Amino acid sequence: MRRLLLVLAVVTVGLAGLMTVATAAGRIGGDAATPTLLAPKATVRYEPAAGAGGVNPAAPVAVTVADGTLDTVDLLNEAGARVSGALNADRTTWTASESLGYDRTYTWRGIATGSDGRKVPVEGSFATVKPSEKVRGTLNIGDGRTVGIAAPIQIQFNGHVRDRAAAERALAVTTSVPTEGAWGWLPDENGGSRVHWRPKEYWKPNTRVTVTAKLYGVAYGDGRYGAADVTSTFTIGRAQIVKADVNSFRMVVMRNGRQVASYPASYGLGSDPNRNTRSGIHVVSEKFTDKRMISEQYGYDVMEKWAVRISNNGEFIHANPASSGAQGSSNVTHGCVNLSLENARAYYDTALYGDPVEVTGTPIALSAKDGDIWDWTLSWQQWKGLSAL
Length: 389
Description:
13% of the residues lie in helices and 40% in strands. The chain contains four helices and 27 strands. The strands form seven sheets. The chain has a five-stranded mixed β-sheet with strand order 21-20-19-27-22, with no helix packed on it. The longest helix is centred in the N-terminal third of the chain and has 30 residues, at 2-31. The N and C termini lie far apart (110 Å). One of its GO terms (cellular component) is extracellular region. GO terms for molecular function: acyltransferase activity; peptidoglycan L,D-transpeptidase activity.
């Protein structure tokens, strides 16, 4: 009996010991604090990368922080002036709002604070590309002008553009009236490349047109880069078309579909191919109250009144008293359209840059050899083939 009690006592003590250990183990596990996770440190990323060289000055410029916020950010040029820019609403990204300069070094300065509360510097620098040449583009139609319904938009570059596709992608034309059109690259002229935008058909009167050429920073190839953006907004005027049938010996002016004038005229001498007025759609490009006209081939040097240029091969609509006896009855000129003083002045006063002059009835066609604006001598498919895209 005593032996049985002794065994039970040992078992009871053993169970108590196990319960004590279990309770102690539970107490240790329950009271221990959960280890705290460390908050992440701020990570700053730069666009372009810090230390980069040859950066395009028109490329996006930004600094972004992950796991933190930007306290202060400055991007400084070599003179210590700040580049314009702004933080986003949650202060995680600063973006430059102005283009940078060519061949310059820019330095970041600022502070970011991480989620861990620690400060991280915004620092580093990068350098922009140094062009071998900065090429400028010039638009032919200025802001606020009113032009005729055949007016092409021209951008004349003062240097050669090898990568025409890159340049063309930077160009845009928007219109108040839906207008189909396309850019076409013409042979280099005046020491540089040139590109025209032509509508498929004549412009609709009163169309408002905006040209935007984002050329700054565009790489043209051979180390050349765009010097500046250019833009213009202008208006298409009334629909004035000159109908010039050389065999009628008259020049008819149509305005908005109605004939407003019919002048006796003399065109180029038909028996001399060099003196034929070229057939095709000419475009008024400039006009002069007085214009000196010289030809070494035909030996004349005269000053003519009310001269409206319709091509760069020497063709004008102008007054010429010397041919007054032929005006309305025969063609005797050196290729120009001759009118009386009174009629030439009347037409001169109505002519706008971009007005079409449709010459018909001669065997020699207007072509690229005749100078600047021969856009309308090509079919629409031929014109679209001049695009670089």
